[in-house]
Write the structure tokens for this entry.
Amino acid sequence: MELVIATRNKGKIREIRDILIENKLDIEIKSLDEFTDIGQIPEPGHTFEENAIYKARFVSYRTGYFALSDDSGLEVDALDGRPGVFSARFAGMEASDEENNKKLLNLMKDVPFENRGAQFRCVMVLYSPFGDYILTQGVWRGKIALSPQGEGGFGYDPIFIDETLGKSAAQLSRGKKNSLSHRGIALRKMVRLIGPFLEHIK
């Protein structure tokens, strides 16, 4: 199967590649950069599910290949689930990871650590050129740190603490993060469904 990963986020691409390789699937991964007529992929939905389906369908139709998309973000209990689908642009359309983290920590400055519960959530969609798709989800619970910790990862990783390990996502190795993360959970579920899905659409 030839598969286009429907994102230009290098961190997401790296994590998805790692897990697909780890599971030894017979998949040829194509980069969006091979398709010069595809610009920025729209995210018009109001939920992770809507955005993930839209992005996978958009890329599959434009390329003629299977497309794998994910829409994911951080949901903070004390902020009523924000930033949610706006995670990547929480501090503005062109905001950097650092700017998003700074805004979130500022909003949380008066919240005690015991009340800083949060979760990363990922919805992943595999869309076929024939219009069929499958969807999986993954959730990673934790807490918002009082300040950034660690140099690895991307996005909100430096301020998201895994409660079991007491470390931020940015302090974990790539392998350890993949074993725990929302994206890793959703993708491993997807891996188990790919075989039956391909049989179904033959």
Remarks:
- The two ends are 12 Å apart (CA to CA).
